Amino acid sequence: MSLLRSVATVGGLTLLSRVTGLAREMMIAHYLGAGAIADAFFVAFRFPNLFRSLFAEGAFNAAFVPLFTGTLTRDGEAAARAFAERAFAVMVVLLTVFVVVMELAMPWAVRGLAPGFEDTPDKMAQAVTFSRICFPYLLFISLVSLQAGVLNALGRFAAAAGTPVLLNLTSMAGLWALMPYTPTAGHAMAWGTFIAGIVQFLWLVISLKRAGMLLRPVWPRFTPDVRLLFRRIVPGAVGAGVYQINLVINTMIASTVADGAVSYLNYADRVNQLPLGVVGIAIGTALLPLLSRQLRAGELEAAADSQNRAMELGLLLTLPAAVALGVIAEPVIRVLFERGSFGPAQTSATAAALVAFAIGLPAYVLVKTLIPGFFAREDTSTPVRIAGLCMLLNVGLNFALLGPLAHVGMALATALAAWVNVLLLAWVLYRRGFFRLDARLRRRLPRLLAAALTMGAVLWELRQMLEPFATGPGRAGLVLAALVLGGGLAYGGAVLLFGAAKPADIKGMIRRQRP
C-alpha cells in the first residue's frame, strides 16, 4: 500500500478513535461525575496506561517491526511467523507474572500514585478495587501491540489502527450494560475496560488469521532473536519514560503559577493533540515498516524518497493547522469549552496557550517522520538521548519563560524544545549519511509556507468580518464552521496557485503499491 494510503487509513481511524474517545469521556462525566468515584476510576485506568506507554505500543513497535520485517525479507514468512510466536510466548509469561505481582501490591501502588487518597479511606478502597479490575488490560493491550506490529509490517494498517475505537465503544457499552448489576458506575467502567482488552485482542487474532499470519502457541524460550528484541525495547521504554517525567515536571511547575494554569495547558494541549494525533501518529506508523522493508532490500534511494515524501505530506497537513490554530484559537476554545464555570477569562487564557503550542505543531509531526529513520536501522538509543537533552532544555525554558509569560511561557517552551528535537534528529541522520532534503522538498517548502501564511491572512480577515455575529453558542459554532470552511478553501487554492502540491503527485502517492 502506498504511503499516503497508509497514512490516510491510520489517520482516519485515529480521528474516529478521538471522536469516540470524546464521546466516552462525555459518558463518564454523565454517569460518574467529577467526585470520588470518578477520581478513583481515573487513577485505576492510569495504571495500565502508564505501563503501556512505557513498555508496549511505541517502545515495542520500534524494536519489533524492524526485526520482524528483516526476518520476513531475509528468511521468508515462516521464519518471521516463528519469531513472532516466540516473542508472543515470552511476553505472555512475563506479563502474566507482572500482572499477578501488581494485583498483590495494588494497595501500596495506589498509595504511591495517589497519596492524597489516604485522607479518604473509601476513595482509596475504591481506587484499589478498580485498579485490580483494570490492570489485566495491560496484558491484553501489550499482546495487541505485538499483533499490530505484525500487521503493520505486512502493510495492513486498518485493523490495528481501529483497536482504540473498540476500546471506546466496548467500555461505553460495558458502562451502560453493567451499571444496573454493579455497586457503582465506577465498577461498571472498570469491568468495561477489562472486557475491552479481550475484545481488542480477539479482533486482531481474527485479523491475523485473515492475513495468513495467525500466531500459534509455542513453548516460551529466550532465543537470541527474542533476547535482542527485549534489549532493544529498553531504550524505547526509557524514551517513553522521559516523556512521562516531562509531563509530571510540567504539571508540578504549572501548579505553582496560578489557579487554573494546569487546566489552561491541559485544555489547549487537547486541542493541539487532535491534528498531531491524526497526522503524526499516522505518518510514523505507516513509515516505519515501509523504511524497514526498503532498507532490508537495499533500496536506499527509495527509503530516502519515502522519508522526504513523509515530511512533505506532514508539512502539507500541519503547517495550515498550526497557522489556523494561531489565528482562530479563541473562537475554537470558545465553542469547545466556554460554558458553565468556564467563562471568557478562561477562554482567553487557554487560547493564548494554544497559540504557543501551535508554534510547535509542525515540529511534533516532523519528529514522527525522522525517528523511523533511526528505528528502521535498529537504532533505538539515539532518539532517546536526544529526547533526554530536549527534556532538560524544556525544563530550563520553562523556568526562563515562566516569569514574563506565566503559563503561556510553558507552552512556548514545549514548542521550542520540539523544534530543537527536530534539528538534532535531522542533523544526526545527515551526519550519518541517512538523510538529505531532496530537490522536490527543497523547492516546495517555501511554497507550502507561503500557502499557509496566505490562508492565515484570509482567516484573519474572515474572523474580523464574522466575529460580530458570534453572539451565543449557536452562532459562535456557525461562525467557527464558516472560518474553518473558508480557511480550507483558501489553503487549497493557495497550494495550487503556488505549486506547493500538484494533483498528479497526490494521485501518484495514492496509487497502490505492493510491499
Descriptive notes:
This protein has 515 residues and is mostly helical. It has 21 helices and no strands. Helix 4 runs antiparallel to helix 7, helix 6 packs parallel to helix 10 (185-210) and helix 13 (300-327) packs antiparallel against helix 16.
Rg over alpha carbons: 23 Å
Largest sheet: none
Beta fraction: under 5%
How many β strands by DSSP? Answer: 0
Poorly predicted regions: 510-515
Distance between the termini: 7 Å
Run of helices and strands = HHHHHHHHHHHHHHHHHHHHH
- Total helical segments: 21
Instruction: Using the alpha-carbon principal axes, give the shape.
Output: globular
The computed structural class is mainly alpha
* Residue-averaged pLDDT: 80
Amount of helix: over 70%
In short:
With 515 residues, the protein is mainly α.
List the helices and strands and how they pair.
Layout (H helix, E strand, L loop, with lengths): L2 H30 L3 H20 L1 H19 L1 H28 L1 H8 L7 H14 L2 H17 L4 H4 L1 H16 L6 H26 L13 H31 L6 H36 L3 H28 L1 H9 L6 H16 L1 H15 L6 H24 L1 H25 L7 H28 L6 H26 L4 H8 L5
Helix pairs in contact: 1-9, 1-12, 2-3, 2-6, 2-7, 2-10, 2-11, 3-4, 3-7, 3-11, 3-12, 4-7, 5-6, 6-10, 7-10, 9-10, 11-17, 12-13, 12-15, 12-16, 12-18, 13-15, 13-16, 13-19, 14-15, 14-20, 15-18, 16-18, 17-18, 19-20
